[in-house]
Write a structure and sequence with these properties.
heterodimer; A: mainly alpha; MetI-like fold; B: mainly alpha; 2 strands; 3% strand
Chain lengths: 281, 298
């Protein structure tokens, strides 16, 4: 951009870029290629390209998806992710609006923001025990509802920080014009701010879904049977059925594909979310 | 940031509470209350998951004498120091190298997001096949380079390395993406001026890029450290803490204390030690990054 790059430099950079891509993408390809290999092809050297080097099959996908536990886990994961993200975004949007547009004492806004963000500092293992005891008391152990509530809690910082920044970037005059026309603050929020916020809102919702989907420690601690989501299925898999590369591939992809697709959809807001608002990306 | 010029002040006061209170109450119920409950638990002994009797600071004294806990702490510290250092160095270098106009950069940036969202448990599980000792892809590659088979998952040292490799794979892109975004936000005219003044690339790196990037690098370091201390998913699915206790990280040990041995009081005390360590790190580094947030104007 700034300095002229010599051809040597350009070749070097391209080389590095190719290596990086290979390194980043290899595990995904490895999971994919194993998921469509016959067991006999698994350890055969040089079986990398389907159709050309080996005959692919979908039987492991079909077999895995016909297992009731797996289907149930996929459903649980979906319910938990959707519920948690929705809750988190509902609570977070309101809080974000308050932080962006109202004043809470002298340092109140900054302190409140820090307080919300400090959520991400807390190691989940600290609160796993009280959650376990509380959920047992409420008879919510092994219940997707419990995981929904807790994942909403741990993802709450994302909507709060991303959306409060976005609202600050919106011109306040739009709301003020609405007030002049007789709108209440609620109407201004719902009819002026929310529509402008929509892309960020959806992206935040998607990021919250990805994080809730990937969460493992709480899911492992609070589920035993009927509420088990995908990550917990995967963690116990090799001990029940041994390491069968083809099933590993299928299960890994079933688990990872949704959050990865989410990530690609929310691309623009990810850096902002992951740095808790410090870098816009 | 000025307050919204709303009709009457009193009405605004009530309205703003309406917006902020649900989230505040939520955090109080789901974070503050559990934390206090954990603190309360940590002063009791538990038998069979039942609150048994008040034991004062016994559970906290045990923190000092438990070799297995110290093992978990050591494993975690080694893991944190090595992985975060590697991620910072690799991620930032890569960002510097690719901070220029070039074809395919946007594609690269999009693809670098993938590891960040690849379910960590699933990555650990996939690692069982990647690090498979007989004819696994990594050992096959090493064999092609003329190395013998590495006992990845059966040797304590190599098992630790395997976990670190996956974590570095997963989080180097984070350092890269954030550094790159920050590098592209640096004012280009400063660098043009430096070039006009005859500064070498090295000089403008040392005297412009590095100082301007320092706050962001502290921030990345902080976020990575906090996250790395929570490590649980990858060792749990890849090595189950083994062989022996070689990869039994802190959170895994605490998890086992709580939900395998139902020693809730002691597990809570362990949790607080971890929280203390992480909070200390945050307190130490936060001063460095305060400026990053203050520029936001909140």
């Amino acid at each position: 951009m700034r300095r002229k790059t010599s051809p040597v430099q350009r070749i070097l950079t391209s080389g590095v870029m190719a290596l990086v891509l290979l390194w980043v993408l290899f595990p995904f390809y490895w999971a994919f290629v194993n998921s469509i290999k016959q067991p006999a092809d698994t350890f055969r050297p040089g079986a990398w390209v389907p159709f050309w080097q080996f005959q692919p099959t979908l039987e492991h996908w079909i077999a895995e998806l016909s297992i009731l536990e797996t289907r149930h886990a996929l459903l649980n994961s979906t319910v938990i992710a959707l519920g948690a993200a929705t809750l988190s975004v509902l609570l977070g949007t309101a809080a974000a609006y308050a932080l962006a547009r109202f004043r809470f004492g002298k340092e109140g806004n900054a302190n409140l923001t820090t307080w919300f963000l400090s959520q991400r500092i807390l190691p989940p293992v600290v609160v796993v025990i009280p959650f376990f005891l509380i959920m047992r008391q409420l008879q919510l152990l092994d219940n997707v509802f419990a995981l929904m509530l807790l994942n909403a809690t741990f993802t709450l910082p994302f909507p709060v920080i991303i959306l409060s920044q976005m609202i600050r970037e919106l011109p306040k005059e739009l709301e003020e014009a609405a007030y002049v026309d007789g709108a209440t603050i609620f109407q201004g929020f719902l009819q002026v701010v929310l529509p402008l916020l929509l892309p960020g809102l959806v992206a935040t919702w998607i990021i919250c879904m990805a994080f809730s989907w990937n969460e493992f420690l709480l899911a492992l601690s609070l589920t035993t049977k009927s509420a088990i989501p995908m990550p917990v299925i995967i963690a116990g898999a090799e001990h029940t059925r041994g390491v069968q590369f083809w099933y590993v591939g299928v299960r890994v992809l079933l688990t990872m594909l949704p959050p990865i697709v989410f990530a690609l959809l929310a691309q623009r807001y990810i850096i902002r979310g992951l740095t808790l608002g410090a870098v816009k990306g | 940031m000025n307050a919204a010029e709303a009709p009457t002040l009193r009405k605004t006061d009530r309205t703003k509470l309406f917006f902020i209170l649900p989230a505040v109450v939520w955090i109080v119920i789901f974070t503050l209350f559990p934390l206090l409950y954990a603190l309360y638990t940590s002063f009791f002994s538990f038998r069979f998951g039942r609150l048994n009797q008040f034991v004062g600071g016994t559970n906290f004294v045990r923190l000092f004498t438990d070799d297995n806990l110290h093992n978990g702490l050591r494993v975690t510290l080694v893991f944190v120091v090595i992985t975060v250092t590697l991620q910072m160095l690799l991620g930032f270098s890569l960002a510097l190298l690719l901070n220029r106009e070039m074809r395919g950069k946007n594609v690269l940036r999009a693809l670098m997001v993938l590891p960040l969202f690849a379910t960590p448990v699933a990555m650990g599980y996939l690692g069982i096949t990647l690090f498979y000792e007989i004819n696994g892809p990594i050992n096959a590659l090493l064999a092609a380079l003329g190395w013998g088979a590495v006992p990845w998952l059966s040797n304590p040292f190599w098992a630790t390395v395997a976990i670190m490799v996956i974590d570095v794979w997963q989080w180097t892109p984070f350092v890269f993406l954030v550094s790159l975004a920050a590098l592209q936000g640096l004012p280009p005219d400063l660098f043009e001026a430096a070039e006009v003044d005859g500064a070498s690339s090295w000089q403008s790196f040392r005297q412009l890029t590095l100082p301007l990037m320092t706050p962001i690098l502290w921030l990345i370091l902080l976020l990575r450290l906090v996250e790395a201390f929570k490590v649980f998913d990858i060792p749990t699915s890849l090595t189950l803490g083994g062989p022996g206790r070689a990869t039994e990280v802190y959170s895994l040990f605490t998890y086992r204390t709580a939900l395998r041995f139902f020693d809730h009081g002691y597990a809570s005390a362990q949790g607080f030690l971890l929280l203390l360590i992480v909070s200390l790190i945050v307190a130490l580094i936060f001063r460095q990054i305060r400026t990053v947030y203050q520029e936001e104007g909140n």
